[in-house]
Q: What sequence folds into this?
């Protein structure tokens, strides 16, 4: 085979290819670690017991990450602020990154939109019936 056609040689030929970008992989890994940390913290703090992580959005520079939760009451929000350091420490121990991103916790807007769509469908069915 001519050298020009052999793509395995030369620059970067042995590098693995990834199906999606680095931030998506980091987001997935952070979501897993944060969910586990919240589950462990929920054993000691009841305000965190019913939280569900729906996703994570990390800034391109990986310094800040927004953790989206299925629901977020004021009580749960206060508990997350109290335990932010413990969650970030869990990320620092379990994820190999240059810096641990500063976390922000928000309710997932997709969940709210889904509830609005469900309510609209219920209204349509009530009006038809």
A:
């Amino acid at each position: 085979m001519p050298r020009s056609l052999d793509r395995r040689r030369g620059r970067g030929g042995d590098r693995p290819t990834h199906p999606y970008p680095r931030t998506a992989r980091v987001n997935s890994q952070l979501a897993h670690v944060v969910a586990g940390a919240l589950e462990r913290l929920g054993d000691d703090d009841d305000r965190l017991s019913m939280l569900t992580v729906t996703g994570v959005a990390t800034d391109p520079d990986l310094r800040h990450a927004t953790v989206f939760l299925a629901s977020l009451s004021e009580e749960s929000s206060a508990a997350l602020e109290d335990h932010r350091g413990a969650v970030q420490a869990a990320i620092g121990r379990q994820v190999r990154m240059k810096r641990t991103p500063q976390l922000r916790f928000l309710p997932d807007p997709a969940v709210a939109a889904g509830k609005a769509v469900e309510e609209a469908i219920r209204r349509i069915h009530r009006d038809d019936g």
